[in-house]
Amino acid sequence: MTSKVDIFLFELAGTRYGADAGQVVKVGHVEKETSVGAPLGKPLKGGRCLVFHTEAGTAHRLDIDRAIGVREVPVASLRRLPSSAVANKAAVGAWLDGEQTVLLIDLPALVPGGR
Amino acid sequence: MPQSQSTKGAKPVRGKKPPLSRMQSGGDGLKPIIDVLKKVLEDNERALRVDLTKLQGGELELGRLVNMTLERLTLDLSLSEDTRQHTVMVVDQALEALISLVRDGELSKWTSKTDDPVLGPLLEGFGKVIDTLRTFVRQINEAALQLSSSANEVLAASTQHESSSTEQAAAIHETTATMEELKHASAQIAENAGAVARVAEETLGSARSGRGAIGEFIHAMQQIRSDSAAVSDSIAKLSKRVERIGTVVDVIDEIADRSDLLALNAALEGSRAGEAGKGFSIVAAEMRRLAENVLESTKEIKNLITEIREATAAAAGAASASKGATDQGERLGAVAAQAVEGILAGVQETSDAARVINLATQQQRTATEQVVASMAEIEDVTRQTTQASKQSTGAAAELTELAARLADMIKRFKAD
Predict the structure, then answer these.
(1) Per the CB < 8 Å rule, is A27 touching B288?
(2) Which residues of chain B does A28 touch, with a Cβ-Cβ cutoff of 8 Å?
(3) DSSP string of B34-87?
(4) Which of A68, A80, B219, B415 could in theory staple to A9 by disulfide, Cβ–Cβ 3.0 to 4.6 A?
């Protein structure tokens, strides 16, 4: 039996990202308070934000362009990125959704000192 | 018949014949006497005598008396013949002298003196005739001189008249030619005036049609303005409805957006619920799909609303421009109507004037034709006058010549 994981897919600044669905508390409207800023780039149109918690239990918001939804993905299809290729410490791996490359993000890692 | 006692060679005596044929003899004894008398008187047998041998008594006596009477008459007649012959000779000489004087024109040399008692009265009578002739010659001479003078005057006057008539004929001919040209010009003018009148009438009709068309144009402009106002009103209403639809769509969009969020969060909740939340996640995904469909639809509606707004704005702009154009059209139509009214009035005046001109030129043409006809008659009369003048000049010349000849002839007769 193949092990699967739920990935929450979203787009930001023209790039498709994925995050562990368990890290996403909810999807809401943009609010300036508790925003992590733009560690993955500035949203092109904005309008949505992801609410997530750090290990300390603090809620933070990441502004995105579009929330695509939850996708159940085989764990085997996920690939961890080599450390030398990681430009952002929040990027932990990648998944190929067909032809589309999805960069997997550890949301708490977006917060300085968040992990 | 017996011829005794008759006188041979006796001349017959002329006289009134008695109506002897009606005489009736009283008896047979008178018959020889009566027969002799008849023969003598009717047949002029003057030598015939009454035969006395067969007569007796009173008839014999009567016969003798008749014979004696016849003898006496024959003798008297013989004496009268001599006298007559002398008288004829003298008269012939006097007449010859008179004729010679008259033929030679030497009337002044006549003399009536003579010793002949028979010729005296005749020469005296001839002298009176010569005096009368001398008087006639003087008078004729004076008359010939006066006639010559008058004939010269008549000739001069006639020559002058002929010259004047010729000049007059030339002037009239020239005037007639000019009038003929004027007649043609008048006819041309009349024709042109008629054409102008027709064109003016057509122009008047066209101007009236133009006035009617402009009236219809203004009416159409007013209708367009009314329609444009209705269109603008409809566009405004449509714009409000579209705005209302936009508001509703915004509400729907908001609802769809919330539904989308709700579905996203429901999916997250289903994911967190693990296997138990699978069905919930499926429902959430379906809800989210619906919400996204709604959002797509509202997006299309918004696009359509945007297009409708743009089209409405364009329509409103077009309606406004149309209203402006209509107002401008109405103003221009009013100006055109006013101008056409002016044109119409002018054309009406032109048409009236053209008709008057046409009538006047027709009258002028008729008058000119009459003048040309009159001039032709005058020219004809003048030609006749010139001809008569020439004849008169010729006659005057002949008269002058005749007067000269008469004067020459009269000069032959010397009255003084």
Answers:
(1) no
(2) 261
(3) HHHHHHHHHH--TT----GGG--HHHHHHHHHHHHHHHHHHHHHHHHHHHHHHH
(4) A68
Give the model confidence (pLDDT) of B151-193 as tens digits: 888 888 888 888 888 888 888 888 888 888 888 888 888 888 8
The pLDDT of residue B103: 82
What distance in Å separates the CA atoms of residue B59 and residue B48, rounded to the nearest whole number? 17
Partner A, chain B 275-294, Cβ-Cβ below 8 Å: 281, 285, 288
Q: Three-state DSSP class for B339? A: helix
Q: How many residues does chain A have?
A: 115
Q: Which domain holds residue B211?
A: 148-412
Residue-wise over A13-42: b if at least 16 C-beta within 10 A, else e? eeebbbbbbebbbebeeeeeeeebeeebee
Phi, psi of A61 (to 5 degrees): -125, 140
Q: Is B271 on the interface with A (CB under 8 A)?
A: yes
**β-bridge mates for residue A95, sequence order:** A78, A102
Residue B93 located in a structural domain = yes
Residues of B in contact with A67 (CB under 8 A): 260, 264
- Nearest CA among B376, B357, B353, B355 for reference residue B183: B376
Distance from CA of A84 to the nearest CA of B (A): 32
Question: Could you give the dihedral angle defined by the CA atoms of residues B285, B289, B291 and B296, in that order, rounded to the nearest 10 degrees?
Answer: 160
Q: Do B264 and A69 touch (CB under 8 A)?
A: yes
Q: What is the pTM of this model?
A: 0.49
State the ipTM, two decimals: 0.90
Query: How does the average pLDDT of chain B come out, rounded?
Result: 82
B299 and B181 within one domain: yes
B59-78, pLDDT tens digit by residue?
A: 888 888 988 988 888 888 87
Q: Are residues B256 and B377 in the same domain?
A: yes
B9 in a domain, yes or no?
yes
How many structural domains is chain B composed of? 2
